[in-house]
Amino acid sequence: MKRKYIYTALILLNLGVFSSCSLDKDPLDTYSDVTEGVNEEGEKVVFKDKAAVDGHMTTLYNQMRDRQEHWYMDLLLIAESHADNAYAGTTGAEVVPFENNSIEGSNSVIERDWRRYMEDIGRANLLIVNIDGVQDPALTTALKNRYKAEAKIFRAMILFDMVRLWGDIPVITTVAGDITEETLEEVYPQYFPEQKTEKEAYQQIEKDLLEAIPDAPANNNNDKTKFSKSVAKALLAKVYAEKPLRDYNKVIQYADDVAADGFSLEPDFTNLFGVQEGSADAKMRNTRESILESQFFVGAGNWVTWMFGRDLSNYNSNFTWAKWVTPSRDLIKTFQTEGDQIRFSESVVYYQTTWSNYYPSNNYPFMYKTRSAYSSIIKFRYADILLLKAEALINGPTPNLTAAAAIIDQVRQRVKLPKLSSAVKASKEAMLEALLKERRLELAFEGHRWFDLVRLNKVESVMNAVYGKDEGRKAQVYPFSVNSYRLPIPQAIIDQNSKIKQNLGY
Asked: What is the pTM of this model?
């Protein structure tokens, strides 16, 4: 059997058929004779030369540009609407369960995401496993190591999203072999992998990132779209803040390493998400704060803009139906109570609509951080890492509330807010609450809120209370509990692979 057909089998058996959804796009890359080749000895190889490897690297990076459903759109739905920052936005059965806490394994969003994430990992593995065997003098050892490092950072990023959503997941670092009569017993289990524990998944992420740093490209201030050393360091700071590998000293270490690479807060917050008047082009790309972003231009814009509001590059396009991730009254009130006008204006905008699912149609709020087809989508930015350092200074083995307060004050003063009061700075619990609020306002609609609540064990206290104080939120179906920290694994995946067990509570 030709290897390309086995690869197709892997996609179908191990990853599953793509879910049927109007938002799904055709796969960017399939295994083909463009990459499959023959070496000088007449043996079939995965990548026949440097050009084939370069093409596959382009495919990995295009996953960040062209397949925005899972790593951005759906992640925002989960992180914002499943938390207290937003309502679902529409009345569709696929999204409402994230607002009212009634998610089940049959949910089409989580099934799409699982399959897309696994497909991403498969593409990364294909390069990591096979690049050393490419016999092309133009593909030097140094370049092979660089490409492998970039693919490992990409794989670590995908695994990080997956483990935070589902906990125990398959951790696949190989490419399944050919199924023949002779190899069936050995190879068949590779198509149906077992789950690894949450800790084992984090350990693989850590391993990938540490191995990648020496060979990954350095940060380029003029191009923040690459899987650079700085991306790996930022991701390590985030990994070490999570419970399975928690090490607050390492959070501080890698946050400082990111700063040493030249990252800092952009002085003007409006540069991060703003667009130019008239053209609706991004106001700025590659700011000093952006660590990893996807960039979009005329002729190659992002399509998710119209999922959340208006596309300012085409004002009336796709604005006839209700949008996802509608800002909640509770979040809006928090902005207003804090007097946080700058970040509020950059995060929320009001338009007149033809629908009134959550607000009067003549004054309807929308999330505003992706407002044009040419807006960059920022995956990692320095403010997140800096505030994680503050979290480590508060919760670490030797708390330093003064240093943590200085960081929070730095973030606040950028948007013209006063410093924290002396009473807040004197209390560890008050400082933690101040940090959570600062992260909520600073990072609203960037995919952080749910994961902040999970990481700091605040899900039950925050989410079970919000339904009573936010009159616009749909009625809660199930209370949040310790089992809520993980989402249900898609039932179709469990039906397909008997080694995958459902998370508790579903």
From this structure: 0.91
Per-residue confidence (pLDDT) for residue 45, from 0 to 100: 78
CB 198 within 8 A of CB 244: yes
In this predicted structure, the answer to whether residue 25 has a pLDDT above a threshold of 90 is: no
Domain ranges of the chain: 1-66+104-216, 278-295+307-376
**Over the stretch 418-438, which tens digit does the pLDDT of each residue have?**
999 999 999 999 999 999 999
Rounded (5°) CA angle 503-93-480: 40
Q: Check whether 216 has a pLDDT greater than 90.
A: yes
The pairing of strands 364-367 and 326-327 is unpaired
Check: CB of residue 392 under 8 Å from CB of residue 248.
Answer: yes
CATH of domain 1-66+104-216: 1.25.40.890
pLDDT at 192: 86
| Half-sphere exposure (Cβ direction) of 492: Cα atoms closer than 13 Å | 19
Q: Residue 336: how many CB atoms within 10 A of its CB?
A: 11
- Please, which residues bridge with residue 367 across strands? 348
Tokens encoding 473:
């939120």
Question: Is residue 307 a contact partner of residue 324, using CB atoms and an 8 Å limit?
Answer: yes
